[in-house]
Amino acid sequence: MKLQDRRYLELHELTKEYPTPAGPVAVVSGFNLHVRRGELVSIIGHSGCGKSTVLSMVAGLTSITEGGVVLDGHEIDGPGPDRGVVFQSPCLLPWMTAFDNVMLGVRQVYPHASRAERKQIADYYLHLVGLGDALQKHPRHLSAGMQQRVGIARAFALRPKLLLLDEPFGMLDSLTRMELQDVLLDLWQSNAITALMVTHDVDEAIFLSDRIVMMTSGPNARVGGILEVGFPRPRRRGELLEAAEYYLLREQLIGFLAGEDPKQQAA
């Protein structure tokens, strides 16, 4: 693998400070991470540790105090269509149909495509996420899970270099969450997109990820350890639950979140 592929996404000494009456406080400090091309990496940690702040800086939605982000050899400076973002809340425009919400991004990314070509792209991804019969429905007529499917379709329709997922299934019930995890994996594998995901769910991180970044608690949060998830793909949830390695990984993640040293656990 080429060096550029091994460092397709680089987060170098990423730091975010906020002013306070007592002086600046660094929520995230010296966060370093390399993500390989085509890899799906999760970031896990306690609520409020700065996981979403890291993702927002990579998305270009939050300014960087120190350090930098490089994607495919180019430093990131603000938001761009090379990064597709799926938020915990799908953030759909309520006056637009599911189709129009996806088309909004497609028009911006493919300005020189014909109307028929753009329509084909939006149709394609909405059908892939299982919304072929709901193209003309407005968000108020869609369940929370269906709205998130629109958000996923919208992100993939941009055909980004990097997919950013900020606890995308955190507001869904368990059954819908598992269904959409499978939808996400199918799309991610078929499109070979590099992905960085924030989650608080240990089982979700193991099931979806190639590697899991364990983030220390803030302030001055940083990478506390990285776990390799070696299960082959495609993955079957039932097979993972029968594997002893699954429970070892789970124990290490829960132990880290409880304040234990992952190196000591692995010894």
Task: Give a short synopsis of this structure.
This protein is α/β, with parallel strands linked by helices and 267 residues long. The chain has 10 helices and 10 strands. It has a 6-stranded mixed β-sheet, with helices on both faces.
What does this 3D model show about the protein?
With 267 residues, the chain is α/β, with parallel strands linked by helices. It folds into 2 domains: 3-82 and 163-266, Rossmann fold (3-Layer(aba) Sandwich); 86-159, no CATH class. Helices cover 38% and strands 22% of the residues. It contains 10 helices and 10 strands. The strands form 2 sheets. It has a 6-stranded mixed β-sheet with strand order 6-7-8-3-9-10, with helices on both faces. It has a 4-stranded antiparallel β-sheet with strand order 2-1-4-5, with helices on one face. A hairpin with a 6-residue loop joins strand 1 and strand 2. Helix 5 (144-157) packs parallel to helix 6.
Task: Name some characteristics of this structure.
2 domains, four-stranded antiparallel beta sheet, Rossmann fold, single chain, 267 residues
Can you count the beta strands?
10
State mean pLDDT (0 to 100 scale): 91
CATH fold description of the largest domain: Rossmann fold
Sheet with most strands: 6 strands, mixed
Low-confidence region ranges? 262-267
**Classification by helices and strands:** alpha/beta
Which geometry do the CA atoms define? globular
Helix/strand layout:
Blueprint: H1 3-6, E1 9-18, E2 25-35, E3 40-44, H2 51-59, E4 66-71, E5 74-75, E6 83-86, H3 98-109, H4 115-128, H5 144-157, E7 162-166, H6 174-191, E8 194-199, H7 202-208, E9 211-215, E10 223-228, H8 237-241, H9 244-257, H10 262-266
Parallel strand pairs: 3-8, 3-9, 6-7, 7-8
Antiparallel strand pairs: 1-2, 1-4, 4-5, 9-10
Helix pairs in contact: 3-4, 3-5, 4-5, 5-6
